[in-house]
Amino acid sequence: MIRSRARAESVDALISPSLEQAREAVKRAVEAGCTCLIVAECKVRYRGRASSELGPGQRLVVLKQDGSVLVHRPFGHEPVNWQPPGSIMSTELVGSRLVVRAVRVKPHEELVVEVSRVDLVAWGRLVDESELAMHGSEEELR
Known about the structure:
The chain is mainly beta. It has one domain (2-127): Protein Yojf, Chain: A (Distorted Sandwich), CATH 2.70.180.20. Helices cover 12% and strands 53% of the residues. It is globular and about 55 Å long. The mean pLDDT is 92.
């Protein structure tokens, strides 16, 4: 494991941590209200208004400060799975897996990311108070 600090006041990272080190880092990040990025070999399961299963693959998991969760594959811009803001997140070690769980209470939905290997965990309290100034639209470009 390599520990890196990009800017002392904003972002911390663990490179190739053990599953226990990753669990502790993710748990601390979520408890501190940080945004957390995880690059990992994982499977994903969703149960709620529908259901889905995604087999093993290397993915980017984003746990945001507002409780939203995004799971991205290494291609495309849309997340393959996601949970909305306000989700309740938890982590646990189950056998040889790190389990990251995001639960939405109403309507009940659960996203479970089952991690077998972690390549990177990075976290920090991000600040963004800017307003988006939109100029033009896709429809105008057509």
